[in-house]
Amino acid sequence: xxxxxxxxxxxxxxxxxxxxxxxxxxxxxxxxxxxxxxxxxxxxxxxxxxxxxxxxxxxxxxxxxxxxxxxxxxxxxxxxxxxxxxxxxxxxxxxxxxxxxxxxxxxxxxxxxxxxxxxxxxxxxxxxxxxxxxxxxxxxxxxxxxxxxxxxxxxxxxxxxxx
Amino acid sequence: xxxxxxxxxxxxxxxxxxxxxxxxxxxxxxxxxxxxxxxxxxxxxxxxxxxxxxxxxxxxxxxxxxxxxxxxxxxxxxxxxxxxxxxxxxxxxxxxxxxxxxxxxxxxxxxxxxxxxxxxxxxxxxxxxxxxxxxxxxxxxxxxxxxxxxxxxxxxxxxxxxxxxxxxxxxxxxxxxxxxxxxxxxxxxxxxxxxxx
Lengths: 163, 197
Ligand SMILES: [Zn+2]
Fold this sequence. Notes:
The complex is a heterodimer of chains A (163) and B (197). With 163 residues, chain A is mainly alpha-helical. Chain A folds into 3 domains: 48 residues, no CATH class; 50 residues, no CATH class; 33 residues, no CATH class. Chain A has 8 helices and no strands. The longest helix of chain A has 22 residues. Chain B has 197 residues and is mostly helical. In chain B, helix 1 packs across helix 2 and helix 2 crosses helix 4. The longest helix of chain B has 28 residues. The N and C termini of chain B lie far apart (48 Å). Chains A and B meet through helix 1, helix 3 and helix 4 of A and helix 2, helix 3, helix 5, helix 6 and helix 8 of B. The structure holds zinc ion (ZN).
């Protein structure tokens, strides 16, 4: 194996990320090549020097701050949304909504049945009365364009208003 | 996929998704050190690292209902942390670049922080450890973003190339290449100080 190839693999060799075959090839080369040995030495020292940087500890109130943030966010949600997401799980809420909708329509039909128009004598006389006012207008003369239109459109629709 | 052994922390997450808040508290206690330290080594500021960690756990908390244990729980939380850290640093760098009107590097190999003069010798021997610590921090800080993340995950978190590739969303070869370049960069930066280290 050539030095260039070995140097490319030294990093993975140090991290124990090479398969057994490649590892033994590198080891063989290192046993004979002082330049690659020197390179490995420097890289190992560099990598090892990073260990001086110690870990830090989280602040004592880390969890408390977290739960405070959660509470703060939940309070900012609208009440309806809070109820939906917290107290009632979403699938249940959807089922309740559907039952409510269907039940509402059913109840509405029972309490307020659809009005079917029944024309009593009384209501008909009221209609007639309203039509009587039309008599205050003069008829179109039959030879006028308006008169022609009226006679054509009222042919199959003879409304006769009795006095 | 279905036969994959469920790790206990993924189990905690599923319990929490079913409404068990105590399970989340366990996750919080178990992972806060890991998350804060990853963020701290990346951002190099304790207060900001704590803020990032809070953001990570908020994200975990609110994504519990959509959580599906595809990978190890630790890989998932590392990934969230890494993403937030990288975005945080990128937005900061962007601000820096804009404010200083510097040209934007396209190579990704740039060294960002200037290292102190290697010929300068501190008079106090007591501050030596602190000084070495500072040198290492500066050398890591000077690495391009992806090299830095790979170094932290490998060196300080002890993760394999495969895990790092899952967290960073790249190939194992790419991780290898990032670490090769990072080690060369660090070697160049730190070798002048080796008589001290
Ligand atoms: Zn060689």
